[in-house]
Amino acid sequence: MQTVQEAATLRAMIRSWREQRQSLAFVPTMGNLHEGHFSLLRRAHNCADRVVVSIFVNPTQFDSGEDLAHYPRTFEADQVGLSERDCDVLFFPAIETMYPYGLEQTVRVRVPGLGDTLEGVYRVGHFDGVSTVVSKLFNLVQPDYAVFGEKDWQQLQIVRHLVDDLSLPIEVVAGPTQREPDGLALSSRNRFLNAQQRAIAPAMYATLCWMRDNYTSGHTRTVVETAARARLQRVGFELDYIVIRRATDLTEPEKYIHTGLIGLAAGHLGSTRLIDNILFDV
Length: 282
Ligand code: PAF
Description:
The chain has helices spanning 7-19, 35-47, 75-83, 95-98, 102-105, 119-122, 126-141, 153-165, 195-200, 203-216, 221-235; strands at 2-4, 24-29, 50-55, 89-91, 145-149, 171-175, 238-246, 261-269, 272-279. With 282 residues, the protein is α/β, with parallel strands linked by helices. Helix 7 packs across helix 8 (153-165).
């Protein structure tokens, strides 16, 4: 595996692969890699001859209340983890490569609608930062495939919309959420949970499963959402939302629709914010 910082070096490597007619899959990350990321890497390997993983802690997707400075940075361990798993290139760009005009003067990419609901309400500007950096990374890496985790379902739909709307020749591939044996979705944030919070955390996925089962067995959406909210608050979550939405555009479903739906939840345990989701018709 080669670690590359410069855009020109990355481009030269990609050009030589292209000359050999090799395909390329890309996994963008912010580092602090865990089994969830490594499963995306495996997915990437199944798609293409070559795999590029990027590590870039993107400042524009943190809102003012979130702590960019304290985002876990574990570069050495990430590098070892990737090199043990057949990654061809680790792209580790400097901030000047990603934002040559600075953070204030950068071109911004915005996906309206999809970016303004759910996470967009609680993390204002977050998805503009994600759409912007993902567009920049796509232009640098020019992959045939780009792999994103289903855990960040809203992000995945936004990237799909962006790729479609900007006519980018990239196939967006979804990687299923990886879970602990008790159901907790793998996340870099789990390390911030204390023992008591860690014991409560699996209730989010358990409640999403409960919500799916109750909705599909005939209860109305508002009844199920209200009861699910109460369940999570009872065990100690400070909840942002637990809702049933249409899976592709995240709008509220019409009554009596039972296909193409997803349950999504977000809430805090102490200062740690967790999100999760469950598709209903799988
Ligand atoms: O999901 C993430 O880790 C980030 O949002 C991404 C896609 C790498 C953009 O910074």
